[in-house]
Specification:
The complex is a heterodimer of chains A (98) and B (232). Chain A is built from four helices and no strands. Chain A is mainly alpha-helical and 98 residues long. Chain A is globular, with a radius of gyration of 12 Å. Chain B has 232 residues and is α/β, with parallel strands linked by helices. In chain B, strands 3-2-1-4-5-6-7 form a seven-stranded parallel β-sheet, with helices on both faces. Classes of the chains: A mainly alpha (98), B alpha/beta (232).
């Protein structure tokens, strides 16, 4: 697990918690549910999180990634289930961009 | 809130260049782009060389805006190309070129701009459409259809982005004397002007006037609209 990336996502989620009705339990770190049957985010909340993470990745790694690409949307097991699955998915995109 | 940060596409010449100068003169920080280099410069204006349908190049522009300004207030999607041909004489390459620049380009800039604007819960997006769509101009099937797509894009994005405090509107100029209509026969243009309520060529000032209205902070309740000039 890319610890730096994980922390970036946790920070974005934490910041977002101030704006959202549902609260992402960021203290559960990788296990924190995001979107889906067990998730806490509305579709709009997911949009804000995805955009926030893309921008944080651009800032920290200097790389532009698109998290909601066709692959992510068509995944049978969505990468947006938990902070951990999102971190893993984003890490793959960053590796590919490098 | 500091001087507004305004991004305008297609600023090398014509309407785009005029708008770049116009908003710099109104104390905006202006960022522009075009496919080929510009032969002019301006204080408080940054230029990027980019094809508006190239996702990587577009993302690079937004990365730069984020680094330099940390925000974006206004996006003016001016870049566009026309293709004037009878449908039976229109090559497929023209179809791709027109759709890429007009539809894909507008879409990409709207998407990336909204990502930057949503954090501050504020943004103004203005798209360019054309009277060619409501007038159903013969010989411009492709161009008119691409602009029809932008009208629909404008209407749907207005709804999707309202929650973020972002308005999305469109302006539809009549013919004005720029490169886009060079090569159109005079009789055809005269016939076109006759179909307007006010039968004259549009001016750059006419267009800026509409954009000013959309960009105003007070226009937060105006979104999803398309305004055609000349009474079309």
């Amino acid at each position: 697990m890319n610890e730096k990336l994980l922390q970036i996502i946790i920070d974005v989620a934490d910041e977002l918690n101030g704006d959202l009705d549902a609260t992402i339990p960021v203290d559960r770190r990788e296990e924190a549910p995001l979107y889906g049957p067990q998730g806490v985010l509305t579709s709009l909340g997911l949009v804000s999180l995805v955009v926030g993470v893309e921008q944080a990745i651009a800032q920290e790694f200097g790389i532009s990634v698109t998290l909601a690409d066709e692959k992510a949307v068509s995944h049978t097991r969505s990468p947006f289930r938990t902070i951990g699955t999102l971190a893993e998915y984003a890490d793959g995109l960053i590796q590919k961009a490098n | 809130m500091g001087s507004p940060v305004t991004l305008i596409t297609g600023t090398r010449k014509g309407i785009g260049r005029y708008l770049a100068e116009y908003y710099v003169n109104r104390a905006h920080s202006v960022i522009g782009c075009s496919r080929s280099p510009i032969d002019w410069e301006l204080a408080n204006y940054d230029h990027h060389i980019a094809d508006v349908s190239d996702e990587t190049a577009v993302k690079r522009i937004f990365l730069d805006i984020r680094k330099k300004f940390g925000r974006l207030d206004n996006l003016i999607n001016n870049a566009g190309i026309a293709s004037m041909n009878h449908v039976l004489l229109t090559p497929l390459s023209s179809v791709h070129k027109v759709l890429d620049t007009n539809v894909v380009g507008t879409f990409l800039f709207c998407r990336e701009a909204a990502k930057l604007m949503q954090r501050r819960r504020y943004g103004r997006i203005v798209n360019f459409v054309s009277v060619a769509t409501p007038l159903k101009l013969e010989g411009e099937a492709l161009y008119a259809a691409s602009k029809a797509a932008i009208i629909t894009l404008t209407q749907v994005l207005a709804r999707e982005l309202a929650e973020f405090g972002i308005t999305v509107n469109a302006v539809g100029p009549t013919p004005i004397e720029t490169d886009l209509i060079r090569g159109v026969p005079k009789e055809k243009l005269d016939r076109l002007l006759e179909r307007q309520a006010v039968p004259r060529y549009g001016t750059l000032e006419d267009i800026a006037n509409v954009i000013d209205f959309y960009l105003k902070q007070e226009s937060e309740f105006i979104t999803g609209q398309t305004l055609f000039l000349g009474g079309v």
